[in-house]
Design brief:
Elements (H helix, E strand, L loop, with lengths): L1 E4 L7 H12 L3 E3 H10 L3 H12 L5 H12 L8 E4 L5 H13 L7 E5 L2 H15 L6 H15 L1 H8 L3 E5 L4 H16 L1
Parallel strand pairs: 1-3, 2-3, 4-5
The structure holds adenosine-5'-diphosphate.
């Protein structure tokens, strides 16, 4: 199955994506994880990414599209994949469509984890204290949410138009959310 997991920062996307990919036995491709890894290893990409990430800004589309194009070309992605953190702009969504189309593929399902803004800020600030992520200060969190609303949220309407969007309530415990996600995926397979 080929999936894109959508949702604002703090919605629990990463946690749910990891679990679902494992259950479906497909690679979980997280741009956030890839970029944090590149920063930790101080690669060229990492040095480039650091400034954007610490401000809550997005990296240029061509950089991200290049990375994800390479990742999706790996043989382990042939039977399916779960994208987490990509696409994040309409330009990225269009690039992904073209990439998939060129190999006769298309997305099967785009779950959208929906969580209200107040709850998001609360969760992100809590995580900032626990994990000390460099991009989890209050100003940067607000910037990330702003960018999500302006650049990423429109993808929901786009994927709804393609008939692949499925909105899932992201409130509740991680197990509760996962159950909802799982039933949407099962319905898709059936
Ligand atoms: P969040 O927890 O806010 O959803 P991620 O862990 O997915 O964030 O990504 C962290 C940061 O990495 C983003 O704020 C952005 O700077 C960069 N990034 C991740 N994915 C993309 C993308 N598809 N396009 C541009 N920048 C990205």
């Amino acid at each position: 199955m080929k999936l894109v997991m959508l949702g604002p920062p703090g919605a629990g996307k990463g946690t749910q994506a990891k679990r679902l990919a494992k259950a479906l036995d497909i690679p979980h491709l997280s741009t956030g994880d890839m970029l944090r890894d590149a920063v930790a290893r101080a690669t060229d990409l990492g040095r480039q990414a650091e400034g954007y990430m610490s401000k809550g800004e997005l990296l240029p589309d061509d950089v991200i599209v290049g990375i994800m194009g390479d990742a999706l070309a790996e043989s382990r992605c042939v039977k399916g994949f779960l994208l987490d953190g990509f696409p994040r702009t309409m330009a990225q969504a269009e690039a992904l469509d073209q990439l998939l189309e060129s190999r006769g593929d298309r997305l099967d399902l785009v779950p959208l984890l929906a969580v209200g803004e107040e709850e998001l800020v609360k969760r992100l600030l809590g995580r900032a204290r626990l994990e000390g992520r460099a991009d989890d200060t209050e100003d940067v969190i607000r910037r990330r949410l702003e960018i999500y609303t302006a650049q990423t949220k429109p993808l929901a309407a786009y994927y709804r138009g393609c008939g692949v969007l499925s909105e899932i309530a992201g409130e509740g415990t991680p197990d509760e959310v996962y159950e909802r996600l799982e039933s949407v995926v099962k319905a898709q397979v059936a």
